[in-house]
Amino acid sequence: MSFRANRILIAAAASACLVALAACERNSTATDAPAATGPVAAKKAAAAAASADTTVTIAVEGMSCSGCENSIREAVEKLDGVAAVRATAKGKYAEVRCDPAKVTVPQIAAAINKLGYKADEKQTTVTK
Ligand SMILES: [Cu+2]
After folding, report:
1. Could you tell me the distance, in angstroms and rounded to a whole number, from the CA of residue 101 to the centre of ligand 1?
2. Nearest-angstrom CA–CA distance, 60 and 115
3. What pLDDT shows up at residue 39?
4. Quick one: 56 exposed, middle or buried, by C-beta within 10 A (0-12, 13-18, 19+)?
5. How high is the pLDDT of residue 51?
6. Ligand 1: distance of its center to the CA of 1 in Å?
7. Which residues surround ligand 1, an ion (CB under 5 A)?
8. How many angstroms is it from 87 CA to the middle of ligand 1?
9. Cα dist. 55→7, 19, 107 in Å?
């Protein structure tokens, strides 16, 4: 391979990295805000406040940064019956305040697994 071709490959690889970084940064900006202030969370909280009296804590493998936490939070918040979500890469779990009459642990796990993480239904605690 010529020197020139190598340089082009390196440049392409470098710009792919920058795109990935930008995506991570973009995801990270919302991280510092508490979960309950997101527009989806606010809407859900208003709708589900009366019945969202249960907290499901589910073990999640594969999160490495705040972008991962945000992806999980946003995906699980979309589920019907979910009022608030807190995901922690460091703690390796997601905490979901929800109405157990509307959403099940397998549904929450499926939403997380669909993103490529590994939610372990067997390592789940449900507290009221
Ligand atoms: Cu990440």
Report:
1. 31
2. 11
3. 67
4. buried
5. 78
6. 34
7. 64-65, 67-68
8. 11
9. 53, 36, 14
Q: For residue 36, give the amino acid letter.
A: A
Query: Which domain range does residue 28 map to?
Result: 3-127
Q: Which amino acid is at 82?
A: V
pLDDT at 52: 81
In CATH, what number is assigned to the domain containing residue 103? 3.30.70.100
CB 104 within 8 A of CB 75: no
CA pair distance 102, 31, nearest whole angstrom: 27
Backbone φ, ψ for residue 83 (5° rounding) = -100, -40
Mean pLDDT per 10-residue section of the chain, whose length is 128 residues: 49 42 42 55 58 93 98 98 98 97 97 98 92
pLDDT, position 25: 42
Work out how many domains the chain is built from and give that number. Answer: 1
